[in-house]
Specification:
- With 671 residues, this protein is an alpha+beta fold.
- The chain contains 22 helices and 23 strands.
- A six-stranded antiparallel β-sheet has the order 8-7-6-11-10-9. The chain has a five-stranded antiparallel β-sheet with strand order 2-1-5-4-3, sandwiched between helices. A five-stranded antiparallel β-sheet has the order 13-12-16-15-14, with helices on both faces.
- The longest helix is centred in the N-terminal third of the chain and has 54 residues.
């Protein structure tokens, strides 16, 4: 009954019947069809109202969900925006025509251009003109195919300075797959390129020194190396004349001949250009604008004729601090150096100092040899004679100073006793050959060689021995004359130079040259014996912030300690090398299973995770390690190194402090 009452009420309301507090109504029992019709209409209206209410409810629910998703998207967008704004790498967004739409603050720090100065302009504003055309052609080919492009570009900052950057450019596509923009992530790698080039130049200089190359050849190699790694600069190395008052051209391969002629034999002094002032004061001289600097008042026309805008000059000093000359960098434009430029000046001057010092030492040795020939009777070298039986017939008193033995003691020694076993074998062989030649009627041949002799105190001394035949007035052979000169210091220098040519100066680990040789030997052995070997690439995580905040001195200490820890984790037959910066390599020439290499890699990772106590600092780093196995991952140096490096890259991508064994699918991910 109540239901019918409510349905009737709804019906009346739908008909617009006014109701009041005193209103009364009754159902008409006399007309059932009308009552039923009212009920049907009322039920229909209730259904419609319920449907509308449900629809409104669902709409509100979807609206709330959209609002929530919008808020989440806005939060994510804010996070991404903040990350890009605070990114340590430059981020640039351009249109399809290379017009710049956005740059982050790091871009301004690197290039010197404010955002407002580049917005709406073509990215060519950074072009230095020094990047090979083929690089840009390859870049646009890949981008036009919708592919990521990565490479190295030489750009120019707002102040005109050239710098290297590693660029990764990715097309941005809409929902239909059409490219609408390009996003570039760029990293300034000028310091890395400079370090790599310095190591290359240093090794080249040491090789030339070990080969006995002439000083001009070595100095030109240094100058050209700097110019190749820093396009746009021109180098000049000036040597101090013997009077210490003038500078002479040592090497200036890219400067005009008329300019070199004009500055050759330049008298040093205060205000005499950059070089003359630097040589006179012994201090670095930076002239950013030649045409408006007082030091260049007398030379600015010459500089203008040679199209030179700025000149930075660093004194070249010997180990004792003596000024040997100057190393100078010229720029075509007005240019101010940054920290990496100053480091380049100092490093290049140090290389030139090594070459000049060595050349002077060699020249001094030649002079001493000439004096010896002229003053043989007063020489401190040991003069001796020996017969064909190897018995000494005379030894000069200087033998006691050389070896500690008195003349009488030395005279009693046989040839075997006067030389180390290795040197004695060589001497006896040469003596036998000389005797055979004389038996055939030929004159006694002159010999010169380096031999090692034992001393009385148990040490040894290296000597250069020159031998010739002694003949009487009748032309008959009498005896063999020998002269022994102490070359221990020279030998040590040669050995040290040979060592430095194959080892890292900071850590004493094998460098890239020696490590490559050992790697190729290990590969040949593995192929010959059908065994396995492993190559690891190790990169230190979080090293650069330590180097930047605490300085290179602390960074160098960490690299040395890292080398010690790495060596402690491997066998004596294994090789640990440093190939540059904070990158190390490990060679395991013989393993049974890839797990053997991974165990060593984990051992290294744990060792590098331990805190470092350096110069009153407690520091922590980690490492990313990539492992490649031969023969599975390659049987040549290039392929194996590529795969180890690829695995290391994936270890970094996996969050650093990680070890990854190369997998073939990494190649697809890398590309």
């Amino acid at each position: 009954m109540k239901l019918r009452w409510w349905l009737t009420l709804v019906y009346l309301l739908t008909l617009g019947v006014p109701l009041s507090a005193n209103s009364t109504f009754t159902l008409d029992p006399v007309n059932p069809p009308l009552t039923h019709a009212c009920l049907v209409v009322a039920l229909g209206l209730i259904g419609v109202i319920s449907g509308i209410a449900w629809s409104i409810y669902r709409t509100n629910r979807r609206l709330m969900q959209c609002i929530t998703e919008s808020q989440q998207a806005e939060c994510t967008l804010h996070t991404l925006s903040t990350a890009i704004e605070q990114s340590p790498t430059s981020v640039v967004i351009t249109g399809l025509d290379a017009t710049i739409h956005y740059v982050n603050p790091r871009f301004t720090q690197v290039t010197g251009f404010a955002a407002a100065e580049v917005m709406g302009k073509n990215a060519k504003i950074l072009n230095s003109g020094l990047t090979p055309k083929a690089t840009f052609e390859a870049m646009w080919r890949q981008l036009s195919r919708g592919e990521l492009w990565s490479g190295e570009i030489i750009n120019r900052r707002k102040n005109g300075q050239i710098y290297w950057e590693e660029a990764h450019i990715c097309p941005v596509k809409d929902r239909s797959g059409q490219t609408t923009q390009y996003v570039s992530v760029k990293l300034d790698i000028s310091e890395r390129k400079q370090t790599e080039q310095y190591e290359k130049s240093r090794n080249r200089v040491l090789e030339l020194l070990a080969q006995g190359a002439a000083l001009p050849v070595i100095l030109e190699a240094i100058a050209r190396s700097v110019e190749e790694s820093n396009p746009g600069v021109l180098c000049c190395i000036l040597q101090m004349a013997s009077d210490g008052q003038r500078l002479l051209i040592g090497a200036a391969p890219s400067l005009p001949d008329f300019y070199n002629t004009a500055i050759h034999d330049l008298k040093i002094g205060p205000g005499v250009g950059s070089c003359g002032t630097a040589a006179f004061t012994g201090e670095r001289v930076i002239v950013e604008d030649i045409q408006h600097h007082p030091y260049w008042a007398n030379f600015k026309e010459l500089a203008a004729q040679a199209s030179l805008g700025s000149c930075w000059s660093e004194p070249i000093r010997s180990a004792s601090g003596q000024v040997l000359g100057t190393f100078t960098i010229y720029h075509r434009d007005v240019c101010q150096p940054v920290d990496t430029d100053i480091r380049l000046l100092k490093q290049s001057a140090n290389l030139a100092a090594i070459a000049i010092d060595h050349s002077r030492a060699v020249e001094a040795l030649r002079t001493s040899e000439e004096q010896y020939r002229l003053l043989a009777e007063n020489a401190t070298d040991v003069i001796w004679t020996i017969d064909f039986d190897g018995r000494f017939t005379y030894i000069s008193p200087s033998v006691e100073k050389l070896r500690g033995y008195t003349v009488a003691e030395a005279m009693e020694q046989s040839l075997d006793e006067s030389l180390t076993p290795e040197s004695a074998a060589i001497a006896k062989f040469e003596l036998a050959q000389s005797i055979e030649m004389m038996r055939k009627g030929q004159p006694f041949p002159d010999h010169r060689g380096e031999f090692e002799q034992p001393c009385k105190d148990g040490s040894t001394v290296w000597v250069e021995i020159t031998t010739t035949g002694i003949y009487n007035v009748s032309g008959e052979f009498v005896s063999i004359l020998g002269v022994s000169r102490n070359i221990t210091e020279r030998k040590q220098i040669q050995d040290r130079m040979a060592y430095l040519a194959h080892h890292d100066a900071l850590t004493d680990l094998p460098n890239r040259v020696l490590f490559s040789d050992r790697l190729n030997r290990a590969l040949a052995q593995a192929q010959r014996n059908l065994t396995r070997m492993a190559l690891m690439f190790i990169d230190l995580d979080k090293f650069k912030p330590i180097n930047d905040t605490l300085g290179h001195a602390v960074g160098d200490l960490m690299l040395k300690e890292t080398a010690i820890r790495l060596c402690a984790c491997v066998r004596s037959a294994d090789t640990v090398g440093r190939i540059g910066g904070d990158e190390f390599v490990v060679l395991l020439p013989m393993i049974n299973h890839p797990q053997d290499a991974l165990r060593v890699a984990e051992k290294i990772r744990h060792a590098l995770n331990l805190p470092f106590e350096l110069a009153s600092h407690y520091l922590s780093i980690s490492s990313s390690i990539g492992v490649a196995i031969a023969p599975e991952h390659g049987m040549n140096e290039i392929e194996l190194a590529k795969h180890a490096d690829m695995a290391m890259y994936h270890a970094k991508q996996a969050g650093r402090n990680n070890v990854k064994l190369f997998q073939p699918e990494m190649q697809g991910a890398e590309s």
